[in-house]
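Encode chain A's predicted structure.
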Amino acid sequence: MIDLKEYDFWFLTGSQDLYGQETLDQVAEDSKKMVAAMGADPVMPCNLVWKPTLLTPQTIRKTIEEANADDRCAGIVCWMHTFSPAKMWIPGLKELKKPLLQLNTQFNEKIPYSTMDMDFMNLNQSAHGDREFGHITSRMDLPRKVVVGHWEQARTRKRIADWMRVAAAVADGKKLTVMRLGDNMREVAVTDGDKVEAMIKFGWSVPYYGIGDLVAYMDKVTEKEIDDLFAVYEKEYEIVWGDDKEFTRAHIREQAKIELGLRAMMKDVGASALCTNFQDLHGMKQLPGLAIQRLLADGYGFGAEGDWKTSAMVRTFKVMTAGLVKDGMGNAFMEDYTYNLEENNGLNLGSHMLEVDPQVAVSKPRIEVHPLGIGGKEDPARLVFTASKGEAVVAAVVDLGNRFRCVVNEIEVVEPPEEFPKLPVARMLWRPEPNLETSAETWILAGGGHHTAFSNIISTEMIRDWCEMVGIECVVIDKNTTVPQFRNELRWNCGYFN
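Encoded structure for chain A:
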């Protein structure tokens, strides 16, 4: 569903016309080789596009304006091969509307001590050419990423690739539609928010659709379509039939009907994410469970109880990680449920009623039918599994009224010490950094919600980059966090963002 190759990143090389044509020809040849080699590396998720060397204010501005106007262009990468006087970049950078990465590298990896002459020095000036460029981007207070390292090294390419993924997610967000079925859960604060400001800030559109609109799509689903999808369920999952096989079959088939209806409706709406509300199920037999889990696995975003912000964030994570999901590595909609408060063994159990993404399952998920105990509808079918263990992050975007804040916690998912024989939902148990007490206290001080986007692929650096690109506050809770330091960070951020 998500193809990052639809996005281009323009590689802009800076120089000036004082060096003579021979030097400029070498600049062009070097940058072409770099772009060709980096672009051919499988780690690069998007297309890296070479552009002619920029020598004047006029060509710089024209190129950046063209990048702004190109829907395929998700960002620009700038490199100063020689010295490129930065005042000539001002007119173009003032117009820049796309994410910017400054690559501080040089064509050669090592200093050629025995052969180095002034011609070499004039050609290879990134050590001070990039500082000139860095000065003007700092003076103009431009959001940007700086990556330092040789362009052939794996770490340098991986950092560029991760940044590309983030910029692609920002581009996706500018055209993202979150299909909102019903409204926010009644009287709940943190899942609500300013949808107009979200569209201004992120590009997220969150239009309302009545649950009756979905029911109308479900009514068009044929028995043959349900049969075919049920066969897929039997192939991909283990079905727990229980004592009444026909009862189980009927309830699973109802989820298939919901899934088919949702897919058709989202295609017509042009939505890549959705949110539902168990308080608004008029005309439906079940709350969507298995249906939502399968949509999540295909790259859609989701938030429960009308939580459109988390839905959009889950979709953002899925764009960032397109092509990297495998063997329990993925992203999920998540909710903090209950604590283990043993001394020196603080743990957080994450789960949700029905809608956790099977991408993160440690083994083949099971389809089970159980009562829900909320919503007043029939027993819904859902995928039940335990999540893979390992390092991960959870993140929540919250609306503080005058700005958005992204709260991030680095965590370690652990293997549960015991089974959950009476908990018929997907779940994960994690140890938050630096410990449960500090994590929970600082999360609460930051106003973080109980719904999060979970990922065991995305790094904290990628989330910081995303926040930088969209211009919102980011606070991170990690192994070095202390409550006094975190309180001060919130106060400093308040002064900056207000």
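The radius of gyration is 25 Å.
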